[in-house]
Each structure stands twice: as structure tokens, then as C-alpha cells.
Amino acid sequence: MYEPSPVGRSAPADAVIHVEGLTKTYVTAAGPFPALKGVDLSISHGEYVAIMGPSGSGKSTFMNLLGCLDTPTAGDYYLVGRNVAHMANDELATLRNRTIGFVFQGFNLLPRMSLQDNVALPLVYSHLDRETRRRRAREMLAKVGLDSYADSFPARISGGQQQRVAIARALINSPSLILADEPTGNLDSHTSEEIMALFGQLNDEGITVVLVTHEHDIADHAKRQVRFLDGLIVSDALTPVRAEAAGSTTATAPVTAGQGAPAC
């Protein structure tokens, strides 16, 4: 049975994400499958981090735990300083809604709703009136360059534009953290570069961005790269082009099995 650490422990003051000994084991017909094996990692406010690794490495499981879409088998997860295991369901849902903006590979737009209403959807459970929700949605569409398409529908725009709408929806609650799972997986290379430029702009504005990708050219847009293999973090370093720009020639330090590398 999962038992989080006692109340009273805390995460580093500047960490928006802090995990200690994070473990996830799935029970399968063939027996227990350890997807994560005691991962330690901190991500500070304002960082831009790419989570990388081959299929089955644990990166998607890790992302689901960060998004509070699943619960760990063991270990602790602190989101903006709060241990999520000690929070009631309603309290956690409120924190997640206000703190995290999600961007998925498949866009997840509702086809019968206008783009404006798709973007406004996360505000349904707020205390804002419909007109205010729609106004804020249009502002977010303007931020991603699609305000003129507010009354259009998902099927009438391109894949790249749909991902922009998804990003606008992720921004509607003014989150401090964006979690993006393979956000360019369904896009061509040119459109992917446009989407990554948008993530870079959001990070420049102070939003912490964490994205999962298996594409090196996409990961190179991030400032830090964390690589998973067999449920463990095997490297954690500045993105090579960033390190070169900073004049760093130091090789990535090895990571002890079951441990995350120190935050950059």
C-alpha cells in the first residue's frame, strides 16, 4: 500500500516540480512491471525541460504522474511546494486546474464546439459568467495568432492551428506550468518549428515548460534535457547547444541508479 512521507517535509523553495523516490509499478498478467524505479528530480520555476527516452523508458508514466493523472506506487511528488498525496481530491483538482496547462499530441478539441468555446472549456467550473469566459478565450486565441478564427470549428483548420488552439486552452487559467506530451507528434517539420517557437515565447514570459519528446531536434529547443531508460533517469544536463553557448565543455555527470541528476 502506498504511504507518502509524513506531513512536514518540504520541497526546495524554487521548485515547481520536486519528486523523491518516485516509483510506479503496474500489475500485469505476467506479474509486476516497474515503469519507474525511484526517480529523484527537481524543476525550478521558469525552466524549460525536455523529457526524453525510447518507448517503454518510463517518460510517459512520469508525465502522467506530474500531471496528477495517475498516482505513484511509492515516493513523493511536490507540486509548487505541496505534497499531492496529502491533498483531498477536490483540493488537488483545484491546484491542478490553476497550476498546470496540458497540451497533448492529439489536440483533444471537441469537434462540435467553436474554437472559442473549446478554449473556454476549462473555465466552466469557475465562477466567471459566460461572456467573461468567452472574452478570455478570445484573448488566448489572439495570443497564439488565431483570434480571427474564434467562431470556426476544429475540422476547418489545419493540424498546426489545432495545436495552437490547444495551447490557448492550456493558457486560459494562467498556469505557471505547461506539460506537453509529444506536442509535435502529429505535425510536419515546418509546423513543428512554429509550435516550438511558441513554447519558447511562453517560457520567455516566465512559464515553466516540461515536454515529452523522442525527437532530438524538438528537444534541442528546451534548455535542459532529462533522459529516461528502463524507468531510471540516466542523464540530466543542459541542452548541448545551450551548454556550448554558455562556454561549458563538461561532460554529463553519471547518474546513480535510481537517482535523478542534480538540477541544472
Terminal CA distance reads 34 Å
- Characterize the largest beta sheet: strand count, sense, and whether it forms a barrel: 6 strands, mixed
State the share of residues found in helices, binned by percent.
Answer: 25-40%
- Structural class, by secondary structure, is alpha/beta
Helices, by number, come to 8
Low-confidence stretches: 249-254, 260-264
Mean pLDDT: 88
User: Rg to the nearest angstrom?
Assistant: 19 Å
Strands across the major sheet, in which order? 6-7-8-3-9-10
Q: Helix and strand string, N-terminal first?
A: EEEHEEHEHHHEHEHEEH
CATH class of the domain at 46-64 and 89-245: Alpha Beta
Overall number of strands = 10
- Taken from the alpha-carbon principal axes, the silhouette is globular
CATH topology of the domain at 46-64 and 89-245: Rossmann fold
Quote the beta fraction.
Answer: 25-35%
CATH architecture of the domain at 46-64 and 89-245: 3-Layer(aba) Sandwich
CATH H-level homologous superfamily name of the domain at 46-64 and 89-245: P-loop containing nucleotide triphosphate hydrolases
Layout of strands and helices, then pairs:
Layout: E1 15-28, E2 31-44, E3 48-52, H1 59-66, E4 74-79, E5 82-83, H2 89-99, E6 100-104, H3 115-120, H4 130-143, H5 159-171, E7 177-181, H6 189-204, E8 208-212, H7 216-219, E9 224-229, E10 232-238, H8 240-245
Parallel strand pairs: 3-8, 3-9, 6-7, 7-8
Antiparallel strand pairs: 1-2, 1-4, 4-5, 9-10
